[in-house]
Recover the amino acids of this structure.
């Protein structure tokens, strides 16, 4: 459970003794909340908060999948920040990753080969595949996504309710520093509390995701010369 953007804005305004009915103030406080959230997300070195798994479908006779038009669209912003792994569920294998230069060097004309993909390369908003898919099949992607800013009143951050105080202290400090800079006492108080909570909760953001891996093996001379184990992105029951 996470607190909605509207409630966070209202609670933050109450902390700085400002009416929550002031529409202009709600907009300004929303900016400060988003600035605080981006600062907090940046502490997440293990990327626990922004790691996700999604499924997209290939297009028959097309060498790439375009994230913005994929089925489904990969993220709210259509583009993953980084792709960690790609799994091809038809043959139950993990695709081999290449740079785009490697991809073009080894596969200059992908139309010469059709089938279930065994290799991929990322280039901007596209995932290039080899061989070229001869049918629509599912790909499973482990990704990092860049957290988008909250905008609608019903939006929620990637943080549970227990972190609300941390968010509010950071927003209140930013408000006092820019909107009421003469009140040095409150500025110092909110900043000190925000720093204390950053030390307290910062370590939480560097924990590994709590996922039970399923180990699988796959041997296929067309993909690899040896059998290799990989961790399935699908959690075990």
């Amino acid at each position: 459970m996470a607190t909605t953007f509207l409630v966070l804005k209202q609670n933050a305004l109450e902390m700085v003794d400002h009416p929550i009915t002031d529409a202009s103030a709600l907009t300004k406080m929303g900016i400060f909340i988003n600035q605080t959230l981006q600062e907090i997300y940046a502490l997440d070195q293990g990327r626990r908060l922004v790691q996700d798994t999604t499924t997209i479908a290939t297009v028959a006779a097309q060498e790439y999948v375009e994230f913005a038009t994929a089925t489904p669209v990969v993220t709210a912003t259509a583009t993953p920040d980084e792709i960690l792994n790609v799994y091809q569920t038809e043959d139950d294998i993990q695709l081999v990753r290449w740079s785009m230069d490697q991809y073009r060097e080894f596969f200059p004309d992908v139309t010469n080969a059709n089938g279930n993909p065994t290799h991929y390369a990322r280039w901007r908003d596209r995932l290039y595949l080899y061989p070229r898919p001869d049918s629509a099949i599912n790909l499973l992607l482990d990704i990092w996504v860049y957290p988008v800013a909250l905008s609608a009143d019903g939006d929620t951050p990637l943080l549970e309710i227990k972190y609300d105080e941390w968010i509010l202290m950071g927003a209140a400090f930013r408000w006092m520093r820019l909107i009421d800079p003469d009140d040095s006492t409150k500025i110092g108080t909110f900043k000190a509390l925000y720093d204390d909570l950053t030390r307290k909760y910062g370590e939480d953001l560097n924990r590994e995701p709590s996922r039970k891996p399923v180990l699988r093996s796959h041997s296929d001379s067309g993909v690899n010369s040896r059998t290799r184990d990989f961790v399935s992105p699908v959690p075990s029951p």
Notes: Helices lie at 5-15, 23-42, 100-106, 164-179, 184-202.
